[in-house]
Design a protein that fits this description.
This protein has about 280 residues and is an alpha/beta fold. The protein has helices spanning about 20-25, 35-50, 55-60, 95-105, 115-120, 120-125, 135-140, 160-170, 185-190, 200-205, 240, 245-255, 260-275; strands at about 5-10, 30-35, 65-70, 80-85, 90-95, 110, 130-135, 150-155, 175-180, 195-200, 210-215, 215-220. The strands form three sheets. It has an eight-stranded parallel beta sheet with strand order 1-10-9-8-7-6-3-2. Helix 12 (about 245-255) packs across helix 13. The radius of gyration is 20 Å and the shape is globular.
Length: about 280
């Protein structure tokens, strides 16, 4: 891949992602992490976000920080409306406030909401040059832009080969893919040179007790693992396997101390998902 660095990107604002600290992610060899802006707007909330110096500082993360706003959708007035699941409060933010907040958070990468290029052509030009914006492929098909940018895709269970062929047509731009991706597809996308491959699936699977073991996935919640005194993967150098924690031990730990066990399992799966460079 000619020395090019590409990244498997875990999501730190999910239920599974929030189990790990910045140090834990680094131990699992993560080089980039993603936060969903809609999650952050709900918790910690707009007021706190406006007070922090940077998203990297808030996370304590030394690597690449990605702010993903692809799930936000503006209404006809150009306003994004979220309803808090905690107290039912309605959170509203317009395009001007959105781009002001993004500049203040200083992510390395920003995934723009769909239609932002068309709805707010002047505002998106105000993004700091240090932030690399990624635009939905559906928007770029219909409208070009001069500012430095990348293109992003959402995986919707397409045929793997067709997806890679589609993305190869955009190889002149930095490329970003997000979705529920299995380990095999993540590695194929790494081999195809996709710059950023974002998925919560490795962490989510581990959160539920499912771990990658060679070409198989082992469910450590299953009673069949309670007498398996071998490590998850003898060839793995993740923190979990390096400590020689056996499947039997992890099965017992998951049943009795799930939060601790989930950290071990997530680190293993995330380590397995990393792109080799």
């Amino acid at each position: 891949m000619s020395g090019k660095v590409n990244h498997y990107v875990p999501v730190v604002t999910t239920e599974a992602g929030s189990c790990l600290t910045s140090a834990n992610w680094q131990e699992a060899k993560a080089t980039a992490v993603a936060c969903y802006l809609d999650d952050l707007l709900l918790k910690p909330g707009v007021n706190l976000l406006k007070k922090i110096d940077s998203l990297a500082g808030y996370l304590g993360w030394p690597g690449t920080v990605i702010l993903n706003a692809s799930r936000l959708s503006a209404n006809k007035e150009g306003v994004f409306v979220l309803v808090s699941p905690f107290d039912g409060a309605r959170i509203k933010i317009n395009y001007a406030e959105l781009f002001e907040l993004v500049n203040a958070l200083k992510p390395d990468v920003f995934l723009m909401p769909e239609q932002a290029l068309n709805d707010a052509p002047d505002l998106w030009e105000t993004l700091n040059d240090s932030i690399l914006p990624f635009i939905p492929v559906t928007d770029l098909i219909n409208q070009g832009c001069q500012k430095r940018h990348g293109v992003y895709f959402k995986y919707e269970q397409e045929d793997h080969q067709s997806l890679i062929e589609l993305m190869s047509k955009w190889s002149h731009l930095p490329r970003y893919l997000s979705g529920t991706l299995d380990l095999n597809l993540i590695h194929n996308l790494c081999d195809a040179g996709i710059d950023y491959i974002e998925s919560d699936e490795p962490a989510h699977a581990a959160y539920q007790g499912r771990v990658y073991s060679g070409a198989e996935t082992v469910d450590l919640t299953n009673s069949s693992t309670e007498l398996q005194f071998d490590v998850i993967d003898p060839d793995c150098q993740c923190p979990t396997c390096s400590q020689r924690l056996t499947k039997a031990y992890l099965h017992h730990l998951y049943l009795h101390t799930p939060l601790l066990c989930q950290r071990f399992l997530i680190q293993h799966n995330v380590f397995q998902a990393q792109c080799s460079t």
